[in-house]
Design brief:
By secondary structure, the protein is mainly alpha-helical. Helix content is about 75%, strand content about 0%. It has twelve helices and two strands; from the N terminus they run H-E-E-H-H-H-H-H-H-H-H-H-H-H.
Amino acid sequence: DPSPFVNFREHKMAAEWSDIMKKNKNSSSIEKRMVRQYLVLVLPGMIIFTIGLIIPLILSFRYSLTDWDGMTPEKTFVGIQNYIKLFKDKDFLDAWWFTIKFTIGNTVIQNILALLFAVALDSGIRAQKVYRAAFFIPCLISAVVVGFVWLKMFSNVLPAINDWLGTNFNFMLFGSPDTVLGGLLIANNWQWVGYWMLIYLAGLQSVPAELYEAAKVDGANAIHRFFNVTIPMLAPAITICVVGITTGSLKVYDLLVTSTKGGPGRASTSVIYKTYTTAINGRQYGYGSAMTVTLVFALLLVALIQVKGLRKKEVQA
């Protein structure tokens, strides 16, 4: 009679199925417990992020639709009139033009210098740690202090050296609309090149030495190795540096406070500096909020385009 064997097989299958269900139940409970732990760890950061960024952005958009001076309780709704006014405001458009030039100059110069310094330090020169510290120290200084330092450099220290050497170089870069951008680029690059250099240096030190050896065997010289091995392997670091420098440059403000104050005239007025003077000094809080919204939108758009484009290069590399 095969029935005992059939019953035994059925009982065995039932036992195996019960074990599987218990394991699935245990794994699902473990997963739920891990999800709860992750939420507990993420929750404080999310609360700070929401209070410090999301809510102010929502309020800024709300105020940008009003004619509010930031002081009185009355907020007159004007719709998109503030945004229409922005595109007719020559001072605001000039502020954007300066910010774009500053951003392009910073992004190009800082990436090139940071990469070159990183390659030099990775080549095995002596006193590597000393040079690394010397390049990195300026980024620990507040941008407000950097602006003050370079204001003194251009107005007192360098002209004194000029007189001592008997030369006739124009070091008063902050005093002319034609040279103020160059002076600010010098100050900003002096402060931040070392920071981005360390990111490139970390990327260089993670490149396998076997790739360079294989390139040498194939007859590639130093220039070919740099463009065909180093640059492709640094694609993730390039993405970080380009996006970081670009978004940081678009938000330039504190450097201007102690160095040029947006001058001479309005030659170095950035978008944030214009927003601050409009909203706080001019008591046009609604109009200033509209400026803020446009800047946030521009930052998100630029970052999204850069990340997508550079990620594609990473995949190709």
